[in-house]
Design a protein that fits this description.
calcium ion binding, 8 helices, calcium, binds calcium ion, Recoverin, domain 1, mainly alpha, repeat, single chain, EF_Hand_1_Ca_BS
Length: 184
């Protein structure tokens, strides 16, 4: 697949991964580190309404699992641009690993575990990763990922959006919504 990817498509793909890395730099130090993922879990759990203790623990474990997957051992710090480049190369590689990171992420955002992401749950998550995003932007992202317009994001819709974001090289509105509006 990557044999036929043009330079322009590569640049677009890198831009998506750059956006993702910036969104995940929760402590705003210009690096991705384990601390960012711990903070993501902490803030998600703090802001989710009526979350169970069991679910909180699941969310911490999932985010630390994602940090491990990216290679963020304690003390490791990767500059955002480098992290974006590594992520882009990995996702465009034919041997890309198949761990179900996006499934894990879905479960973290679905804080009441009913199998759907509601607009309220989505807002909590997006306020964690995009502190500067307006409610309008968040609603736009939600509606774009909610492709059947049912008012909730199903696991299938979420995974489809994740696949478009991580594996697609064409410009799509989904890619411009999955982590919010793409950064330059
Ligand atoms: Ca950071
Ligand atoms: Ca839910």
């Amino acid at each position: 697949m990557n044999m036929s990817v043009t330079e322009q498509q590569k640049a677009y793909h890198l831009r998506k991964l750059r956006t993702r890395c910036h969104r995940m730099d929760i402590n705003h130090d210009g690096y991705l580190s384990r601390e960012d993922f711990e903070l993501m879990a902490k803030r998600l759990v703090e802001h989710a309404s009526g979350i169970t203790k069991e679910k909180s623990e699941e969310i911490y474990a999932a985010f630390l699992g994602i940090a491990d997957y990216i290679g963020l051992k304690p003390g490791v710090k990767i500059p955002l641009e480098e992290a974006a480049k590594i992520g882009s190369d990995r996702r465009l590689s034919p041997e890309q690993p198949t761990e179900n990171i996006d499934d894990l992420l879905f479960d973290c955002i679905d804080t009441n575990s009913d199998g759907h992401i509601s607009i309220e749950e989505f807002k909590v998550y997006f306020k964690v990763i995009g502190h500067d995003m307006s409610d309008e932007e968040i609603k736009h992202s939600f509606d774009t990922i909610d492709s059947n317009g049912g008012g909730e994001i199903s696991r299938e819709e979420f995974i489809a959006a994740a696949n478009d974001f991580y594996c697609g090289v064409e410009e799509t509105e989904l890619s411009n919504a999955f982590y919010g509006k793409l950064l330059p």
